[in-house]
Amino acid sequence: MSATLQDLHDALLLDLDGTVWEGGRAIPHAVEAINASGCTAVYITNNASRSAAEVARMLDAINLPTDAEHVLTSAQAALGLAADTLAPGDPVLVLGAQSFRDLVQEAGYRLVDSADEQPKVVLHGHNPDTGWAQLSEAALAIRAGATYLASNMDTTLPMERGLMVGNGSMIAAVTSATGVVPASAGKPEPAMFHQAVQRIGAKAPLGVGDRLDTDLAGGVAAGMPTLHVLTGVSGPHALLQAPAKQRPTYIAEDMRGLAADPASLRPGVHGGFSARMDGEVLVLDGGTADSTSHEALLTALEVAWSQPTPPSEVRAESAAAEAALAKWW
Questions:
Q1: pLDDT tens per residue across span 33-47
Q2: 260-318, pLDDT tens digit by residue?
Q3: Is residue 17 flagged as an active site residue?
Q4: Other Cβ atoms within 10 Å of 218 Cβ, number
Q5: Rg of the chain (C-alpha set)
Q6: Of the listed 7, 17, 285, 290, which one is catalytic?
Q7: Which of 138, 220, 267, 309 is deepest in the core (most CB within 10 A)?
Q8: For 20, which DSSP code?
Q9: How many Cα neighbours within 13 Å face the side chain of 38?
């Protein structure tokens, strides 16, 4: 029997929202696949609204036993960035959850809530309760010279009802008011991936996520193989348009891909399909009644990614190809 993808790795560096769960509810097949993988799981999340301990408790509640040492949040990473600017006792304004505020206090800094207290740094993490007043205090502080740092720049957050407003969208309001774009500590920066590898001593890690511009770009930047799952933000059309720095090594419909033959997850000819370029149009042909839309996607990606620019559109020239394209979103 040939080796499966999980056989090639000793650690999974897993995104959470859109990969493992949606708003805390397990995504189908994710829990079973992770538990059966035989790999050490480290959960790396750009969502800074919960502490590592709280995330660990939530994972345990969906039958993914873990602890805070195996959870890395972008709030922790942002605090690391702030350490380069701050001295003990310096004032810091935090837009974020109570867990983020607690981290700042535990690190020896002074929490303030007003620009009038002259914060040296503004830390911006996701918090559903952030409103106009808090955003305005941040804008005033930044205009007065405070360093602006963000936990992450995700514009959306996958939840049970769909894509909600993410931290990056809140940041956009502050940036619009100040002209200042914050440095970001979370993905797609590679720091969290490197920290996770060091923490557990992994030799062959696999980055896993659902969002190309954060999860996959971060894994690529960290120089490790990556698995993209089609259970969250980035779908087939986003993959076709992906620049090289966001392209995953493997693509699976869901986390069951961990137990698949790695060759079946790589871009290339699959399912009897063929692909070619006709000018700027990618033409998908062939396939059979048993071929899958995922096989069509992998076939199309090999050709699309070989071009200097992404295809302007995809056209089907067979019944099987047309049926496959109808399932892309």
A1: 999 999 999 999 988
A2: 999 999 999 999 999 999 999 999 999 999 999 999 999 999 999 999 999 999 999 99
A3: yes
A4: 28
A5: 21
A6: 17
A7: 138
A8: T
A9: 10
